[in-house]
Amino acid sequence: MGTPIVHRLLAGGHRVTAWNRSPARSEPLAALGATVAASPAAAVDDADVVIVMLADADAVEAALFGPDGAAAALRPGTVVVQMSTIGPDEVRSVAGRLPEGVSFLDAPVGGSVDAARAGTLAIFAGGSANALESAAPVLQQLGSVRHCGPVGAGAAVKLIANTGLVTAVAGLRDALAVAAALGVDRQTALDVLGRGPLARAVERVATPGASFAVALAAKDARLALRHLASSPALEAALALMQAAPDQNADLSSLVSTHSVKEA
After folding, report:
1. How many domains does the chain have?
2. Buried b (16+ CB within 10 A) or exposed e, 86-117
3. pLDDT for 197-208, tens place per residue?
4. Is 10 exposed, middle or buried, given 0-12, 13-18 or 19+ CB atoms closer than 10 A?
């Protein structure tokens, strides 16, 4: 997600400094006009807005508070926009440890790499109105912003959205398994399901350019389950994802022809 976000910001006229845990992934950005930093601390030098887009809470913790972490180098007036999908508790912990005078938004996104390229992400923002106003020129380049409430609210809304997504995809997989068992043509089944309650799931698995790794979707399901005593549908979806043979494949791989035949 970081690469298309940098593309969008450069195209919008913003000055961008990038850092990536895998340095080779930052090299193509230099050719586009981004400055590539050697560390998180160097990346935030003189920044007005700092975007954090990483895989999980451990990566966020390391980038902000580890050796050469960004937090210690932030100057007053900077807005940190935490766009990684992590839990509300982790979000509030991060916000509480930033230097005085630094504003914070948790702003995870709905949409995949294709939406990031197009600037059509759904951005779920949690934080103060002042912080949101300061970050608006950057966020509006990336998609539409919904102010969900105080810090942590954006993370909460993102978990709701992803719970709906993964359970719907699991439901679609089961519906297609029934079709296969009954000898119904797959495309016929998809056409019918695309006109019913699973329409958005059908649309999602057919979207070219979408990239939401099964492992990341499972991580988000586990985050949501921490807040529930029991959730049979989400627990079943998580078990399905954990059993997937290719954890790096897009979530749509759960309803591939091969996987449905095995169901």
Report:
1. 2
2. bbbebbbbbbeebeeebbbbbbbbbbbbebbb
3. 999 999 999 887
4. middle
Tokens of 178: 């029934």
What amino acid occupies position 154? G
Domain boundary among 105, 120, 149: 149
- CB neighbours of residue 15 within 10 Å: 12
Bridge-based pairing state of the strands 121-126 and 109-110: antiparallel
* Domain final residue pick, 109, 133, 149: 149
Range of the domain at 122: 2-149
Per-residue pLDDT, averaged over 250-262, amounts to 76
pTM higher than the cut 0.85? yes
Could you tell me if 165 and 218 lie in one domain? Answer: yes
- The whole-number pLDDT of residue 110 equals 92
